[in-house]
Inverse folding.
């Protein structure tokens, strides 16, 4: 049983990874967080009891903020809000994204600035513990006033309405909650608004993407090192002295990874005295490009973790001072900007990987390897079309990398006149990351095939470990076959973490 203690202030990407990997989970809200929540709820209840005019509590929403709501209709107001905002379209979020979104929303609420009841959050956490997962359509948010439509679908299931995934089936929420022994929550004043304000959908997609990108980036280093070995390239550009005098942290870490992966390579030793002076940029500048992606990912991770532990409601309840303040913490600009940044950075990672693939399959650049890495060329096409697939994915990424956050369409009759499009930015980054995984899988397919032509010389231990785990799924290419199966098999090795685990078991952790 994996226990997660929520205080609203200490959720990290590493904690998310542990959460996603746990078979069973149990949540505990700290005593301090409980006290904060209770104090804030008391202030909300006081506003209700005294009839204070507070946005979203005793008034309508958005353009209807000037419409007063009678006390007897306050709960109906919250229910109507959730139902009317449950307008999402498109495919549901993935299982991981849904679970992260639920956890992030709960973590934001336990900070104690929402005025929500403890019972409401506990119901959300019980759903996570029992694996009752809302069906949340991924499209429909503009990332301001929060991810309103998708978060409303989450809140809807909390009420026992809408649909969920439970025990492998899509079913009505009420049915699943009854089977799981969870009582649907009846929304009280402020609670519907508290549940849907914030960009936890954007942050959830961003968090899941960042976790995959961490693993992908290390696998891209492995692929680059394997290509360098098959290409009989030089290790000189990875000399630590070069990177010490341009001290970008990601660049230094990447160069270290390449040295570690290729240390003791017999292939490198075999061509110390060759006449070639320099390799092409996609090999020689690998540290600079992969390193820039690393630095981008580090910055993105910092911003996401800050967002994970933020209060994003409107209005916010400051119980200590007795104030309920309207603001704009729900706006998705911080998340949207870094997801656009990550998207374009990952697109470049795919671009340089595709160029390395080209250096392997083109006999003009491959340093003696057969055309398209196959014997009996002509009868066999070899790696001709896998390179075309990589080019196609890289081209698609160029369009996806156009920043979503430069656009804003006013909503809610110009009350919400500048919106972030953060969810779109996060989805673009996620789609690019998935495409780049496939490009790197193709590079590993070509690199492992290229190594066949330099045998019996052995590559460095990290590259050798990657080659060996690939060969457990993808045999040496003797003649043409359906290469889609090979690409998929290597893509699964990347996504499951099996490839990286094999490499790190051989050489230690990559940076």
């Amino acid at each position: 049983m994996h226990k997660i203690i929520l205080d609203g202030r200490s959720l990290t990407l590493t904690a998310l990874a542990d959460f996603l990997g746990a078979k069973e989970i149990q949540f505990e809200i700290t005593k301090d967080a409980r006290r904060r929540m209770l104090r804030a709820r008391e202030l909300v209840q006081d506003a209700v009891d005294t009839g204070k005019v507070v946005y979203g509590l005793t008034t309508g929403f958005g353009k209807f903020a000037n419409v007063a709501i009678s006390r007897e209709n306050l709960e109906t107001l919250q229910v109507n809000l959730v139902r009317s905002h449950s307008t999402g379209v498109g495919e549901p979020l993935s299982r991981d994204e849904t679970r992260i979104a639920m956890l992030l929303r709960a973590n934001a609420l336990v900070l104690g600035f929402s005025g929500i009841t403890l019972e409401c959050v506990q119901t959300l956490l019980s759903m996570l513990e029992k694996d009752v997962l809302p069906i949340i359509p991924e499209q429909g948010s503009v990332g301001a006033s929060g991810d309103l439509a998708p978060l409303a679908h989450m809140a809807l299931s909390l009420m026992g309405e809408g649909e969920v995934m439970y025990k492998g089936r899509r079913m009505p929420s009420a049915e699943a909650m009854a089977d799981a022994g969870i009582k649907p929550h009846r929304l009280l004043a402020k609670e519907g608004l508290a549940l849907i304000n914030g960009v936890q959908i954007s942050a959830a997609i961003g968090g899941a993407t960042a976790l995959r990108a961490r693993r992908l980036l290390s696998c891209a280093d492995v692929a680059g090192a394997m290509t360098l070995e098959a290409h009989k390239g030089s290790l000189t550009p990875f000399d630590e002295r070069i990177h010490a005098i341009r001290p970008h942290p990601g660049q230094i870490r990447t160069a270290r990874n390449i040295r570690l992966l290729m240390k003791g390579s017999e292939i490198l030793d075999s061509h110390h005295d060759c006449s070639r002076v320099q390799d092409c940029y996609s090999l020689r500048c690998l540290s600079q490009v992969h390193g820039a992606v690393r630095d981008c990912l580090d910055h993105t991770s910092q911003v996401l973790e800050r967002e994970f532990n933020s209060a994003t409601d409107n209005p916010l309840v400051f119980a200590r001072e007795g104030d309920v303040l309207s603001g704009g913490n729900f706006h998705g600009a911080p998340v949207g900007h870094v997801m656009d940044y990550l998207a374009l950075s990952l697109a470049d990672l795919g671009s340089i990987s595709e160029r390395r693939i080209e250096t392997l399959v083109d006999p003009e650049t491959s340093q003696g390897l057969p055309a398209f890495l196959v014997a009996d060329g002509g009868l066999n096409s070899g790696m001709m079309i896998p390179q075309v697939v990589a080019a196609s994915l890289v081209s698609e990424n160029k369009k996806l990398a156009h920043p979503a956050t430069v656009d804003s369409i006013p909503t809610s009759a110009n009350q919400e006149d500048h919106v972030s499009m953060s969810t779109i930015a996060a989805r673009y980054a996620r789609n690019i990351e998935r495409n780049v995984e496939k490009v790197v899988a193709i590079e590993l397919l070509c690199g492992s095939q290229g190594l066949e032509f330099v045998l019996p010389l052995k590559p460095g231990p990290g590259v050798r470990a990657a080659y060996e785990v690939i060969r457990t799924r993808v045999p040496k290419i003797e003649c043409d076959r359906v290469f889609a199966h090979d690409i998929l098999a290597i893509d699964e090795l990347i996504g499951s973490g099996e490839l990286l685990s094999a490499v790190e078991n051989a050489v230690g952790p990559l940076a």
